[in-house]
Write a structure and sequence with these properties.
The protein is mostly beta strands and 272 residues long. Helices cover 11% and strands 46% of the residues.
Length: 272
């Protein structure tokens, strides 16, 4: 494995029963730049954030958890609504530089850690600078300028190129109904994925939506850390958001209807 890989080691495990009880599936560190895209396809930086996440196999495996940064700072993790995922998400940063000051590149082998229920999981992150200059393809927003309720709408983007230092490149799309305050869908594909469809059945006239397209370079490994086949993932993302509203199905033009009626009457008269 190259030095750019994300390597994980267990610093300490207190009691074998704890290891058996806490079946960890994924341990993630993510850093994300958020852009807002305009109708003319230009993008502007909005903010950046970072965080750590641990996914366990079973609900109730963990009752308390903290994430640690290389500088020793401890952050309280919270339990997600699905009862199997613990995460910590940072506040918003106004630049990638300010984010990296709190979530730095590899700092002399110091680890991003995870503490929970009497055991400690540490991740030593070798995170190459080239992966913190991510670029995102331009998204074709022309189809979102006139979205009609009940009609499927396709959105496409140019090809996303994987960073040579990354293990893989993934694309995540999401649609949120801002009016109802709920998620409509969340999809994932690799970097060959160049389009997605917004289902017309979920598009309601008068509602405002946000489409998110997240381009993610990821380092992935399966460490021998005492937690089965847990995946260790460090991701470097550019998330592009675009908000739009849905229009009602256009009503037929009354003059067209009158013209059609007159034409129909003319045909009937000829037949008589």
């Amino acid at each position: 494995m190259k030095s750019t890989a994300l390597l994980f080691i267990v610093a300490s495990v207190l009691g074998s029963s704890v290891v058996a009880r806490a079946d960890i599936v994924d341990y993630d560190l993510f850093k994300i730049l958020v852009n807002t895209e305009a109708p003319d396809s230009s993008t502007s930086f909005s903010y950046a954030y970072a965080g750590e996440r641990v996914i366990t196999q079973n609900s109730g495996d963990i009752t308390d958890a903290e994430a640690s940064r290389p500088n020793g700072t401890l952050d309280n993790m919270t339990l997600d609504s699905d009862n199997v995922t613990w995460d910590f998400v940072s506040g918003q940063y106004n630049s990638s530089a300010s984010l990296l000051s709190d979530f730095p590149l590899d700092n002399g082998g110091n680890a991003y850690g995870y503490y929970a229920d009497g055991f400690t999981l540490f991740g030593v992150l070798f995170d190459p600078q080239t992966m913190w200059n991510p670029t995102a393809p331009v998204i074709n927003l022309s189809t979102l300028t006139n979205v009609i309720e009940g009609q499927n709408t396709s959105v496409s983007w140019s090809t996303y190129t994987k960073d040579p230092n990354a293990s893989e490149a993934d694309i995540f799309t999401s649609l949120t109904d801002n009016t109802l305050g709920k998620s409509v869908f969340a999809n994932q594909g690799d970097n060959s994925y160049t389009s997605d469809v917004l289902p017309g059945s979920d598009l309601i006239a008068g509602h405002n939506y946000t489409l998110g397209v997240d381009f993610s370079n990821r380092e992935v490994t399966v460490p021998n850390n005492g937690f089965g086949n847990a995946s260790a993932i460090a991701s470097y993302d550019v998330l592009t958001n675009y908000s739009f509203s849905v229009q009602s199905v256009p009503s037929p033009n009354p003059f067209i209807l009158i013209g059609m009626s007159t034409f129909g009457l003319g045909i009937l008269r000829r037949k008589k």
